[in-house]
Amino acid sequence: MSRTAWVIAISAALILGITVVEAAAPANVVGAYGFVLPILLIATARKRYLMWMTLAVCIMATYAGLLQPTKPGRFKAALINRTVVAAVLIGVAYFAMTREERKAAEEAAKADLLRANAQLQELRTALSRTERLAALGLLASSVAHEVGTPLHSIAWQVQTLADDPHVTPEMRKTIGLIESELSRVVRIIKDQLSSTRQPKAAPTRLRLDELAQSVVTLMEPSFVGKGVALKTDLGVEPAWVWGDLDQLRQVLVNLLTNSLAATKAGDDVVLVVGRRAATIVEMEERRKHGLPPCETMVTLTVRDTGCGMPAEHMTRAFEPFFTTKAVGDGTGLGLFLSREIAVSHGGSLSIDSVVGKGTMIVIALPSYSGPGVDREGHETA
Q: Which of 39, 240, 275, 303 sees the fewest Cβ atoms within 10 Å?
C-alpha cells in the first residue's frame, strides 16, 4: 500500500472515531477540535483535492452535532461554538497545506540544484578531458614533425638492406615486416601533420583472423624475449569484418602490449578469434543508427595470466591518461583509444580482471556478409 493510501486510511479512521465521540456527547464541542488531527495528517500527502474533501467532511461532521437534541436556548450557543470550530479547521487546513507546499517546493528546488551540480561536474570532467586531448594533439604534432625525418632515413636504410643480394629468405621476410610497419608509422605521422582532426577511417572488408596473425608475428619476438607464451586460436572459418585496417591493428597492438607488460616469465597470453550471436541491445543500437541488421558478432579475446587489476583501477581503466605504469612507460590512452575505435566500428570493448589471476579483454565487431563474401564467410570473385 502506498504512503498516500495509508494517510487516507488513518485519517478516515480518525474522522470516524471523532464523529462517534461527537454523537455520544453532542453538547461537548471540545471533541470536534479533534478533526484537526486528520487535517494535519492529510496535509502531509500534499494533494489539494484530498485536503478540500477532508475539510468538507470534517466541517459536515462538526455541524452534524447540531442535529442532536439540546436543552432549550442552547442551539444558538452550539451553532456559534461549532462555527468557531469550523473556522479553526479551515485555518489549520490553510496553514498546514501552505507549509507542506512550501516544503515540497524547497525539496524540488534542492533536487534541481543537485541535478544541476551533477551536470556541471560532468561538463567540467568532459572539458578537462577535451583540454588534455587537445594538448596531447599539439604535442603529437610536434613530436611527429621531429621524428619524421629520422624515420625516413631508417626506411631508406632498410630498403638498402633489402636490396643486398646476400640477404637470406628468412631475413628478407623480417625486413619486409619492418618496412610495412615503418610505412604505417610514416603514414600516421603524415595524417597528424596534415590535419588537427582525427584522421578519417578508411573502412574496408578485412579478415580479423589474418590481421591478428600479422600482429602476432610482429610482436612474438617480444614475448619470446620475456619468456611469456603467446598462444593463438584464430578459428577455422574466415572472420570478416568491416573496418579500418590501421585502427584495428592499433587496438590489437595496444592490447597485446598491455598483456606483455602485465605478465612475467612463465605466464601465458592467449588470443582467440570467435563468433557469437548479436544481443538484442546491439541489434537495436544498429537499427537506431540506420545500419543494416547484423545477427552475428566477431569477437577477439586477449586473455593473460598476469597480475590482474584491482577494482579501483578497473573503474578508471577507460579514463584518458590514467595509467599505473611508471612515468615515460605509458600515456594512459591505450584502452581509452581502443574502446573509442571499437565503438566507432559499431562494436564494443569490455574488460574483466582479477588480481593475481589475470585479465581478459573482449572486442566484439559486427560480422561482414556483403559483396565479395558468401554466407559461409568465403571470399567470392
A: 275
DSSP-derived letter for residue 379 is B
Encode 346-362: b = buried (16+ Cβ within 10 Å), e = exposed: bbbbebebeeeebbbbb
β-partners of residue 361 are 302, 351
Interstrand relation of 229-233 and 268-277 (parallel, antiparallel or unpaired): parallel
Measured in degrees and rounded to the nearest 5, phi and psi for residue 231 equal -110, 150
Q: Are 237 and 271 in contact (CB under 8 A)?
A: no
Each residue's pLDDT tens digit, 209-248: 999 998 888 888 888 889 999 999 988 888 899 899 888 9
Greater model confidence, 132 or 81: 81
Residue 94 corresponds to which amino acid?
Answer: Y
What does pTM read for this prediction? 0.52
Q: Which of 110-119, 326-335, 363-372 has the least mean pLDDT?
A: 326-335
- Residue 27: the pLDDT is 61
Rounded to the nearest angstrom, the gap between the alpha carbon of residue 32 and the centroid of all alpha carbons in its chain is: 58
State the SS3 of 77-104: HHHHHHHHHHHHHHHHHHHHHHHHHHHH
Of the chain, the end-to-end C-alpha distance in Å amounts to: 68
Residue 300 in 3-state DSSP? Answer: strand
Q: Which amino acid is at 333?
A: L
Q: Which three cell numbers stand for residue 107?
A: 525539496
**353 in Cβ contact with 294 (< 8 Å):** no
Q: DSSP characters for 223-259?
A: HHHHT-EEEEE--SS--EEEE-HHHHHHHHHHHHHHH
Task: Output phi, psi for 299, to 5 deg.
Answer: -110, 145
Backbone angles phi, psi at 26, to 5 degrees: -65, -25
| List of residues 6+ apart from 9 with CB closer than 8 A | 1
Residues in the chain, overall count: 381
Strands 348-354 and 268-277, by their bridges, are: unpaired
